[in-house]
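Morning run. Coffee first, then this:
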Amino acid sequence: MDVRKYQNYIDGVWKDATNGKTMDIYCPGNGELVSVIPASDTDDVDAAVASARRAFEEENWAFNPRLRSAVLKEWGQKMRENLDDLAVRLSLETGKPIGEAKFEVNGSIGYIEYYAAATRTLFGSTTAVDPYMLSVLSREPVGVIGVITPWNYPITLLMRDMAPALAAGNTIVLKAAAQTTGCTTAVVELLKQVPSMPRGVMNVVSGTGSKVGNAIVEHLDVDMISFTGGVETGKGIMKAAAPTMKKLSLELGGKSPNVIFADANLDKALPYAIKAIFTNAGQLCTVGSRLVIEESIAEEFVGRLKAEVEKIKVGFGLDADTGMGAITTEDQFNKVLGYIEIGKQDAKLVTGGYRVTENGLDKGFYIAPTIFMNPPMDSRIVQEEIFGPVLVVQTFKTEEEAIAIANGTRYGLASSVWTQDIDKAMRVGRKLRAGSCWINCYNKLFPECETGGYKESGVDRAGGVEGLMKYTEVKHMGIDFTPQA
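And here it is:
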């Protein structure tokens, strides 16, 4: 296997960690070494932040939208030219099927292209507050942004969170998830082919979250943190950022309901229900991990669902016929197996519920697609984010009961409603406490459209116009042109 070594990127220079230490990344599909990354320390974070601060204050970036647009556009083009290689590195580090990896890289290119255009459309407003006073509200970049990305969609979420920060004129210190730092850094390495990017605007420091991540969050010269990941980590970031009053953008966990009424187009709903939970082996914040279905059609629909799910081939990510790949980390693998054991005690197991080891998969972290039926509402498999290929089916009789079940967790990231009655779709959709609600579809995620959570699913929004504006400060300028007496 092609083992690649990556470095930190600080002030336009690729370099090893100052302590000389490294970390290894192993493929979750077969346990083989695939990447070696720096195991950085706080000295590297200090250097990266200083570089980003200097670039923000001195380089021709913060107030040059045409340059920012051109750089992002060229970077996106280089990603497109290297799509196949990026997808392979992504598949090797995450375990996801190569088709899903290519889809992810394409999606990340969509984000950078969208924000390359949006950077030239940042606007403020003016108000004539009296005959000789004009109030001007202008949008300005926040400053130095610490971007901390997760391991489940490391390239898409890199560009969803970082591209708008750059588009708004900020400078970046990136800390990628340790498990997928290689494929994330491979994207940044393409800046070697984009000479117009000013030195120090983009910085990368790799290492552990406890050391590098915390140092970025607590740093006095970092103005904002953008984080995607787990709820408990997000709460820890809020506490750590409080002493310096940083701006925060947090997209956290989900336990999203996929609500299907009896009058829905079930032939359309079936493949969506499968993709909603088993894409990327269920490792997606917005997965439809709870299928909330009207009781009168539940038995028939779940029977069809079971038959189709059992056709999914679990296998190595680079095999062309793989339908679902490995769990990305050993810790997550063990966590999912633990939840499956809880489910076996609390609910009826419809299918799956075991580790997959046949056909040479015993060296990887593979779990069969799993479905549980009607656990109690207070079961941990209903209330907690599993982040794996485990679907919980819950049945309802009335519209009000469907809404209560759907809203019955501490999360509120995503949701969907399936019905051919548009009035019902609007009634239910408006009452679901979630940042996204899809009607007769699921996980339709676009660069132009915002995502984000209610309740404990996060703070702020990503994507779309809101995903750009959050990386700006609003400045009021009052202009007095009273004539002299």
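The chain has a mean pLDDT of 97. Good start to the day.
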